[in-house]
Amino acid sequence: MNLRVLKKTGLVLALAVVVFLSGCSEKDSTIVIWTNRPEFASYAELFNSTHQDMKAVVVYKENPAASLPPAKNEKLPDLIVGPWLKTPSAKKYYSPLNKIFSEEGLDKSIFYPQLLEYGVVDEKQYLLPVSYNLPAMVCLKSNEDLLPDQHVLTLDAIKECAAEFNSTDKYGDYSTIGFAPSWDYDFVYEASKILGAGYEQEDDGFKWNDYGLNATVEYMRNWTEEVNQSTTLEQNFMFNYLYMPKYRWVSTEKCLLAFMTSDELFSLSNELSQSFTFRWLITDAEKFPVEDAIVTMGMYKKSKNKKLAREFLYWFYSTETQQALIERNEKMNLDSKAFGIAGGFSSLKEVNISVFPSHYRVLLENLPTEENMEFGSLLPNRWANIRNQVFIPYYSERCDTTVNPDECTPLEDLIANYNRTAW
To answer: What is the pTM of this model?
Structure first.
């Protein structure tokens, strides 16, 4: 489903909710869900069709965590869904959900334990995991033999494969380049996590590991100089040949690999994806680094309908329900589709193991085990902006081989610039 359409659906729903709720009493049977995941508009429709005595309505919030507390006279949410919900103020805004396990029916074993632990604050379960994504490298099926492993690639393996794919014409200009760091700073950022950047929330701010940042800059500059000569040549090649969406880069056969996250990759139409294969990006320790924006769900502490909200949780966290949600998305037959559950892999092990492969055939025998997944540290709820306005500019400047790193904008200045415009 087209994200813009989905967001508009969510916004229309939000307006409808305001009108509808204006006449409702505090004891009504309406469950209000705040989320930036537009898929929940469809989920609420399915819930409502199977529950005659209660209704779920969705209010779209660009950043649900940053929208708390609700504005004066705003209808209180019952459930909040989105990334970055786990913050130092989580206990202030969410109700503990331990009783869902100890007294009322959900079994902890249905979840990935690392994901479940992500929602724990001071030994209490404040958030339940919904979905997550993984980084991958995409190539044409016709070039699959040029990759060393059936399922995974390390950074060094990507660099080696890319170098072997490089070729020049009779004038000495590049006719193909396997991959270049300067083409995609989302890739560089993901690599920085593998190389020890150590991004983490600290009080009301964030911290990082200087060694990891420097290691990333050195690794990427060396890659460019050793394999592709210079950032200028990489950028010129991209301008000439790779001026289209990333999934089409490899279709040109001018490059071997493109970086995509699992939600990007599996949201491609069946027609587009038929010619592609992929490899998961892994660490040297053979761990699968989970993407930052893990989607979780919490119950608002001042919710007026906690009992009904728990009913929605019981309904949502079942294999049967999530299978129905995936099938419903497929039957809508839109030009583009949303991947999986809330745009990612499910937090329920059985759904990924038994349901996903029947809908995404390429995942058959190609799913990471729970023991091999690696989760990053807690990050601020504005991390997406911090990443894009601080660290991406930091790497794009310093990884450029035509620039002296000592003459680049200091990281402290980038952070100061971000802080001046953040609010």
So the answer is: 0.89
